Amino acid sequence: MPQETIAASDRGLSYGDGLFETIAVVNSRPRLLNAHLARLEKGLQRLRFPVGTLALVKEDLARLDFQGDQTLKITVTRGSGARGYAIPDPLQPSRILSLSPARQGMQLNRERGVRARLCQFRLGLNPALAQLKHLNRLEQVMARSEWDDPDVAEGIVCDLEGNLVEGTMSNLFWRQGSHWYTPDLSCCGVQGVMRDHLLGLFGKQGVVVEQGRYPAEVLTQADELFLCNSLIGIWPVTEFEAQRYEIGETVRRLQSVLSEDLHC
After folding, report:
1. Among candidates 172, 151, 175, 154, which has minimal Cα distance to 163?
2. How far is the C-alpha of 117 from the C-alpha of 153, rounded, in Å?
3. Active-site option among 75, 133, 154, 168
4. Whether the Cβ atoms of residue 205 and residue 82 lie closer than 8 Å to each other
């Protein structure tokens, strides 16, 4: 039965034991919904949630009334249980779905570009949890706490070995010459739905994007740089660590292709 509250003993609160998806609702339609649900299902399987959990989420979605432009957040936790890390048996996952107004200012950042900075906080290496959108976001919280300058839109984070991973809330792409690059996420980081979608669009245009482990210094040689996620779309980076970048034709073309592809 739907409720407005969650138990204090919920494992999502106690241990960050769960997953979430944040989805843009555009013109009353959840954008890239199937891709988000596919990533959620992948996470549920890897974290050994009960078979059928995703089906319950889909039933919840069918009861929502989407109106205009909104932000949909889906959170799935392992539910309540006794003290201790052992997984409860029987297990009754909690599903939390919320709708909020769409964030303002996205389009302006897409047009003008944004400033980004390099974070000092490093992400730990954990292949077992890499790529998942799990509830343990304390690393991102700590990285984001490093600045309060409203003119800096995002921070770029490296792993413990000094290799580029992602932004605190976004994924990262850059171009050097005729070659495009994005960090490998097999050891840490979030495999963004928009990141995957853009890789598909690159592929349709015959553009190969190399995925690997690169030190932050490579960005000083980049010709174009952008950040992406499901809510912001593509944000060109015009300044990073006092270095300036032009918004090139490649990024503008990709923005246009993305807009046409998503019909927005």
Report:
1. 172
2. 8
3. 133
4. no
* Euclidean distance between CA atoms 224 and 162, whole angstroms: 21
137 class by beta-carbon count within 10 Å (0-12 exposed, 13-18 middle, 19+ buried)? middle
| pLDDT confidence band for 1 (50 / 70 / 90) | low
Bridge partners (DSSP) listed for residue 210: 181
What are the residues whose beta carbons fall under 8 Å from the beta carbon of 84, sequence distance 6 or more? none
In the residue annotation, 166 being an active-site residue is answered as yes
Q: What is the pLDDT of residues 168-208, one digit of tens each?
A: 999 999 999 999 999 999 999 999 999 999 999 999 989 99
The sheet with strand 70-77 has its strands ordered as 29-30, 18-26, 70-77, 94-101
Q: Is the separation of the CB atoms in 213 and 207 below 8 Å? A: no
Task: Report the Cα–Cα distance between both ends of the chain, in Å, rounded.
Answer: 35
Q: Name the active-site residue from 22, 71, 238, 250.
A: 22
Residue 41 annotated as catalytic: no
**Could you confirm whether 53 is annotated as catalytic?**
no
* CB of 36 closer than 8 Å to CB of 72: no
pLDDT for position 264 = 52
For the segment 73-101, the average pLDDT, to the nearest whole number, is: 93
Single out the catalytic residue among 166, 168, 182, 224. Answer: 166
The pLDDT value recorded for residue 89 is 85
Tell me the pLDDT tens digit for each residue of 216-243.
Answer: 999 999 999 999 999 999 999 999 998 9
